[in-house]
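Incident log, structure service

09:12 report received: a user says their structure output differs between two submissions of the same chain.
09:20 pulled the input from the user's history:
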Amino acid sequence: MLVLNLDADLYSSTIYVLRHFRPWIRRGTLVYLDDMAVPDHEGRAFAEFMRETGLRFAPLCADRALCCQFYECLGAAGDASI
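09:34 re-ran on a clean worker, output below:
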């Protein structure tokens, strides 16, 4: 199982890491994002990554302010092999 603990903060570094690890992200992969309070950075990168790849993620938990968020990859829509 892969666990990505992203403390990248900025859009450019977050999208770089997500794209780099794409070949290993599959159903069951866990992704932790620590700075979702600034929507133009980690939030934008994560949303863009999901659009680009077709991967779906389910939220598992978050802090009260929704700044720190934890997700599990459900795989791609319509693809049972991931």
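09:41 both user submissions now match this output. Likely a transient worker issue. Closing.
09:42 reviewer note: The two ends are 13 Å apart (CA to CA). The helical segments are 11-21, 39-53.
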